[in-house]
Amino acid sequence: MFKGDEPAVGMVFRRAVGSARRLGHPRVGVEHLLVGLAGGDDVLAEVLARHGATSDALEETARAAAPLGAGAAADAESLALIGVDLDRLLLSGEPRSLDRLVRRQPLFPLGSGSARRRCASWDPPLGLDAQGAYEASLRLALARGERRHRPEHLAMVLASLDPGVDWVLVQLGTDRRGLLQDLERTFPPPQRSSMLRGARSLLRSTRQRHLVRRYQRTTGRSSIGPADLASFVAP
After folding, report:
1. The domain containing residue 168 runs over which residues?
2. Is residue 2 in some structural domain?
3. Given its phi and psi angles, is residue 44 left (phi above 0), alpha (psi -120 to 50 degrees) or beta?
4. pTM above the 0.85 mark?
5. How many helices (H) and strands (E) does the chain have?
6. pLDDT values of the chain reduced to their tens digit, one per residue, 235 residues
């Protein structure tokens, strides 16, 4: 039976909010989630540090992504190739306008009810990229047949799908493929019986496509490497 978030997931989001607050940023984006993931005292932080993604280095990169965040920085580089100046279009407006919901509200971290209301009242608030990453990582944990949703699921989704995280890793000189391989080795999916593996493999591609589509609808961005997610899903 799936038991929801481990307490460590909530700590990641609290550290992310603290990072955005320290930097004076108007929203919590995926760059701050990386700071939250790297700021723990656990194996995941060690994996990130091996690839140069320490909490201090990530916070400096988050500072460089202000005020619109790493996702917008990635968008700006892509649009500049076709002569569109995204900064000029957006900086005259409110950065939080990037997070206007156009579809149903995604899941919030830490469950529902009072926890959902608490997350909604955080200042600075969670951006849609952070919310979309949370929901996708929760679905990844379910697709892997895990009993709990843990921080490594969030790291897997961010490194596999998010263009803002890709932008951050490029700034750090981190090999994203190498990081993905390290995450795969360090956090393998749970072992299952041959009968259960066979039953789950029939739905593997469907689960993965649904996860990626939901992420893209929530964030309004295309994923960078949906095929990279396949290695994390239990067959």
Report:
1. 7-232
2. no
3. alpha
4. no
5. 13, 0
6. 788 899 999 999 999 999 999 999 999 999 999 999 999 999 999 999 999 999 999 999 999 998 788 988 887 665 555 554 555 555 555 555 556 554 555 555 555 444 445 555 668 899 999 999 999 999 999 888 888 999 999 999 999 999 999 999 999 999 999 999 999 999 998 876 565 555 455 556 777 788 898 899 888 888 887 778 888 875 5
